[in-house]
Design brief:
Length: 258
């Protein structure tokens, strides 16, 4: 059987795909991103569904992928100019990938905390106690990795907690993925939902979700319309509410080619 034109074309496509995946072939373009300011208007990679996806879209043109390994492959061959990622995940990924580095200047730093009413010091102490236990048993780290790094993690509720009567209400927005969002059936999902549910499981009480606009989370707790809210709370809100210890300290960095 002879070599047809179609076979030659297919072989050429296969070779091109192999070169793209391996990072071999043509030399990638030089790195032009040496500061967060340089990322403006660029093609920026991020994990699909992570907070970095929104940051990438605000800075330039976001190109999302399901894994860090995919991001590094595309960065190395130049189909994206840089990558935005949470710092601890970025450090782990870069240490296993030749030819890339993390910029020394962080793109964004902030803490995620619970908000509790000023007069409810007992609840604040209980939430902080639960967060300490969830940090020690790996739950907080597992949930952060699931939403920020695309890693597999399954939360298992504790079996030795004595249920208590009552519930805690949580104010969250319905449109802030990956922190809190609704699916097609109207069910709430997200990091904040899972963290709050784990805290309530530890305390032995039911979690009830109350939908609020993101701009009204602090006032919802302040006026007693919800027991808790979560997220990146404004510093001025501390005059109105108490805030817990962080359940996630977020540092977003930029990865570039060397």
């Amino acid at each position: 059987m002879g070599i047809t034109k179609e076979r030659i074309v297919c072989a050429a496509i296969a070779v091109f795909a192999a070169l793209l995946i391996s990072g071999c072939g043509d030399k990638p373009p030089p790195n032009l991103v040496n500061s967060p300011e340089d990322a403006s208007g660029r093609f920026i990679g991020a994990i699909s569904g992570s907070p970095s996806e929104r940051l990438a879209g605000e800075l330039g043109t976001a190109r999302v992928f399901s894994s860090g390994e995919e991001l590094m492959a595309h960065l190395k061959v130049g189909t994206i100019d840089c990558v935005i990622m949470e710092n601890s995940t970025a450090i782990e990924l870069v240490s296993d990938t030749a030819g890339v580095r993390i910029l020394s200047e962080a793109l964004l730093e902030h803490d995620l905390r619970f908000a509790v009413a000023k007069e409810n010091s007992e609840l604040l102490a209980a939430v902080n106690s639960a967060l300490l236990a969830l940090n020690d048993n790996g739950t907080l780290n597992g949930l952060r990795d699931r939403y920020f790094a695309g890693k597999s993690y399954t939360y298992t509720p504790p079996e030795d907690v004595v249920p208590r009567p009552g519930f805690l209400s949580l104010a969250v927005p319905p449109d802030s993925p990956p922190y809190s969002y609704k699916d097609a059936d109207g069910e709430f999902f997200g990091l904040d939902i899972d963290i709050a549910r784990a805290v309530c499981d530890y305390l032995g009480v039911e979690l009830r979700i109350v939908e609020y606009d993101a701009r009204e989370l602090v006032t919802a707790v302040w006026f007693g319309k919800a027991d808790l809210s979560l997220g990146w709370l404004p510093s001025e809100g501390e005059e109105l509410i108490n805030i817990s210890e962080p359940y996630a300290s977020m540092v977003h960095v930029i990865i570039v080619r060397r």
